Amino acid sequence: MAKAINALAYKHGTYNVFADFCEMAAISFSNAVDKQQYQGRESRYMEMIKKYSAEELNEFPKLLILLANEMEIAPRDVLGELFHELELHNQHAGQFFTPYGLCEMMAKMTFDKGIQRTIDEKGHMTLQEPACGSGAMVIAFAMAMYSYKINYQHCLHVSAIDIDIRCVHMTYVQFSLLHIPAVVYAGNTLTMEMRESWYTPAHIMGGWDWRLRSTAKPVPEAAILPIKTETVCIDTTPKESPKTARKVANAGQLTLF
Description:
- By secondary structure, the chain is α/β, with parallel strands linked by helices.
- It has helices at 2-12, 14-33, 38-48, 54-57, 59-73, 78-85, 100-110, 113-122, 136-147, 152-155, 165-177, 201-205, 208-213, and strands spanning 125-129, 156-162, 182-188, 193-199, 230-235, 244-251.
- 51% of the residues lie in helices and 16% in strands.
- Strand 2 (156-162), helix 11 (165-177) and strand 3 form a beta-alpha-beta unit.
């Protein structure tokens, strides 16, 4: 992925290519399920692709396939690793993402029997991340649930916030690929001023607006692993339309759409 981004960086800059990839991927996932925000995000997408040639645009769906495959092999904070690999972290602003190995350790230390009791009583648990970065802490916690044979895709709902819109896009894309029910906010946790809301496909498809207001429990079998899955990636290659969705036959990742 770093090699593909660097190949485009000579003309557009590494930071811009990485940020555009994350935003276009986020819009592609969002527009497949969130029709209320479709028009504004579609207009933004169409404006973004104008600066790239057709040949350059072909690289973006390839990047998304690489990301999906990498998360398929080992679910983790892949975009956070790529962010540092490309040396985009800002030392002066103190913007460094927590190493995923440390996130895994903290998630395992946090996980206890009380979590299972909460799920048994309410049918689900909620998790809040006030400064999500690229989503590493939440991903690690979801994987900890998975290791205890609790289906996070049915039993976990996440509210994640970050002041940096680029981090919001990174988090949203990775949550979408892992089918984590979540709302990712662009905003300030301290002042509680929110500018944008990004609802993951798992949130919308799982009816979480209703579930969070209701005391109804999910079907018990929904919390039992394993899950039969397949991968979905978004093809942003211009054809008849500049943005087209297509399925990639690759067993193991949950079908999103």
